[in-house]
Design goal:
The protein is mostly beta strands. The protein is built from 1 helix and 10 strands. Strand 2 and strand 3 form a beta hairpin.
Length: 138
């Protein structure tokens, strides 16, 4: 089991158990308030209010990031020729994805606004902010 201390950020896992399947695919991020022998009291902030819960350490993982990284971390900016994927929200929790080669960038007010990606044999117009680089063009 991990060593926790007060103030740590912890991912607390949840999930579903049925007769046929078991999943541990839900996560709540909480701040550790009290450390017991095998359990933690965690503070969960939901909708501007704090709730406190006793949870077993065995379903928690400590989460840490050096704050210095925040000021230097940047997303990879797509360039013409890169393999990219565009994503948009679909029905329910579904995500629509279009994968292709970035072939055109359209600027508005001095910034990238829309772009065209070549998906197979078709050029598709998508929003610039929906792109993520899968592989840089060498």
């Amino acid at each position: 089991m991990e060593d926790f201390k007060e103030g740590d950020l912890a991912a607390v896992f949840g999930g579903d158990l049925t007769r046929d399947s078991r999943t541990a695919d839900a996560i709540s991020f909480c701040k550790v308030s009290i450390v017991g022998q095998d359990d933690l009291v965690v503070q969960n902030t939901v909708y501007y209010s704090n709730t406190y819960h006793v949870v077993p350490k065995s379903i928690c993982r400590k989460v840490h990031l050096d704050p210095k990284i925040l000021s230097s971390a940047e997303i990879l900016i797509p360039k013409i020729g890169d393999l990219v994927v565009s994503f948009s929200r679909g029905d329910g929790d579904e995500v629509n994805k279009k994968t292709g080669i970035l072939c055109k960038i359209m600027y508005r007010l001095g910034q990238p606004d829309r772009c065209e990606i070549l998906c197979g044999t078709e050029n598709v117009n998508v929003g610039w902010n929906s792109l993520i680089v899968l592989r840089k063009d060498s």
